[in-house]
Amino acid sequence: MTTKTKYRSGFIGVVGRTNVGKSTLINTFAHAKVAITSRKPQTTRNTIRCIITEPEYQAVFVDTPGFHKPHNLLGKRLNKMIVATLADVDAVLFLVDGTHELGLGEQYVMEHIRSVKTPVVVALNKMDKLANREVEERLAAVRELGEFTDVVPISARTGRNVDQLLDRLAALLPEGPQLYPEDMLTDQPEKFIVGEYIREKILELTRKEVPHSVAIVVEEMAERPGKDLIDIEAAIYVERDTQKGIIIGKGGAMLKEIGTRARHDIEAMLGVKVNLRLWVGVEKDWRTRESAIHRLTEE
User: Is there a domain that residue 178 lies in?
Assistant: First the structure.
């Protein structure tokens, strides 16, 4: 750990509408897969911490679910989670999708941002898809939303201007020591990450209402005695029998494909062979029940 008196450390909350690229940006910061990504909205369900350690600072990014108009109890809880994060960080990164004109969604996020006293930096994402004139127009529109510490155009996908954004955010952190070990990228337990990898593959492979009805519970994760192998058993919960049939697929084909894709990422993370066993259960309308939400998403 560095002993410089001007070393900076702290937490940066990452907020924005659903599907603007927050998780992609977190992974670009880390040069690793810390958060799952998907083109489907509301992919992130938990606050996920990504720890970036440099000689001059340690920045802990808190990736939050996307702000959205909630349609069930789970959605309301996700929005409350974001508000709680905003109140407990040293800086806020507001990510905006530059490929869309600003609208009610950004104004909705701004209503919550205005209530915090911490510095706010806006990142205009997906600039790789815009002409220079369009970038300038979007930047001007963002500045009309409110007063920000800075507005930076970036591309989370290509990495353009991401280093500059990171340096700008790090400069806003208070002086302090490292909060986590240097080699630590996230404080999430391996079981949580395994469950997220499984859920990501379901997001990739299924459509309509199925992805958002899915919850993953990793029930067992243990090294097999005498072998360089980890046995993992996980349950995939859905809300209806019809969804269960979709997840399993004809002759179990869909479930097998989910397992194959998830195992590939899990093995890359753990650096060891994995025996992944999946099964599917039905928890009727779990997103509308407090006890079920807690049991299926927080334990």
Answer: no
Whether the CB-CB separation of 92 and 57 falls below 8 Å is answered with: no
- How far apart, in whole angstroms, are the C-alpha atoms of residue 6 and residue 78? 36
Closest alpha carbon to 15 in 130, 136, 148: 148
Instruction: Look at residue 47 in the predicted model and tell me its pLDDT.
Output: 65
Give the chain's mean pLDDT. 85
Domain-ending residue, one of 141, 170, 199: 170
State the burial class of residue 205 (Cβ atoms within 10 Å of its Cβ: 0-12, 13-18, 19+): middle
Better-predicted residue by pLDDT, 193 or 259: 259
151, 124 Cβ separation under 8 angstroms: yes
- Measured CA to CA, the distance from residue 275 to residue 139 in angstroms comes to 49
Q: How many domains does the chain have?
A: 2
pLDDT digits (tens, 9 = 90+) for 196-215: 899 889 988 987 667 678 89
Residue 182 lies in a domain: no
pLDDT at 267: 93
User: Which residue segment(s) compose the domain that 247 sits in?
Assistant: 190-297
Alpha carbons 265 and 278: distance in angstroms, whole number: 15
Asked if residue 134 lies in contact with residue 100, where contact means CB atoms within 8 angstroms, the answer is no
Share of the chain above pLDDT 70, in %: 85
pTM of the model: 0.74
